[in-house]
UniProtKB/TrEMBL annotation:
Pfam families associated with the record: F-box
F-box domain boundaries: 13-60
InterPro entries registered for this protein in UniProt: F-box_dom, LRR_dom_sf
The protein, known as: F-box domain-containing protein
Stored PROSITE patterns: FBOX
SUPFAM superfamilies: RNI-like
Species this chain originates from: Solanum tuberosum
Length: 190
């Protein structure tokens, strides 16, 4: 880029901008979730560092029409592990997640309404509900509403009774993890 005949290097200019972290945080909060996921970490080292901080992900907005083709989504609970912001958000965006093939919910408080929303993802092949308060009825709804489900991870879903036919159905899946299975191979250990 040339300004008044002088060659300007945008990277040098960017590095010269000295703003407090609070200003950069405010700027980063205005960047869409999709842009944060796709390319914000490529802007500069400061943005890479700030994207690793929890504030960057306090709000995940999937209302953007570009998210309609989303295939994979991982959400981890917060607020003491109950994940209240997650399940209320998930209920609202579930209709836009029609093309979702993989969903990982770790330590998220799942309500019957949330499970009902999850039970309408016909292309879902892999579901991990790590540490969920899932019930047998919710699990039945998911199994009926997600006919392509081939991988189901229910580790730490300790309230489930899988001794009946629903347990048999789960165990027949290509990849099934029981509520009491070890977490040692889980990639997002807390």
């Amino acid at each position: 880029m040339k300004v008044d005949g002088a060659e300007l290097n945008l990277k040098e200019i960017w590095n010269e901008i000295q703003l407090p972290d609070e200003i950069w945080r405010d700027i980063l909060l205005r960047v869409s979730t999709l842009d944060k996921l796709r390319s914000a970490d490529k802007v500069c080292a400061l943005w890479r560092r700030l994207l690793k901080e929890p504030f960057s992900w306090n709000m995940i907005d999937l209302r953007d029409s570009r998210c309609k083709g989303l295939k994979r989504l991982w959400l981890r609970g917060w607020a003491g592990g109950w994940g209240i912001p997650i399940y209320s958000c998930l209920i609202k965006v579930a209709p836009r997640l029609y093309h979702l093939e993989e969903l990982i919910l770790q330590d998220c408080f799942t309500t019957p309404v949330c499970i009902e929303a999850l039970a309408h993802l016909p292309l879902l092949c892999r579901l991990q509900l790590i540490g969920s308060a899932l019930t047998v009825w919710g699990l039945e709804a998911v199994l009926v509403g997600c006919p392509n489900l081939k991988s189901l991870d229910l580790r730490r879903c300790l309230g489930l009774d899988l001794s009946g036919p629903i347990g048999d159905r789960c165990r027949r899946m290509a990849d099934f993890r029981h509520p009491f299975d070890s977490m040692s191979d889980f990639m997002f250990l807390v």
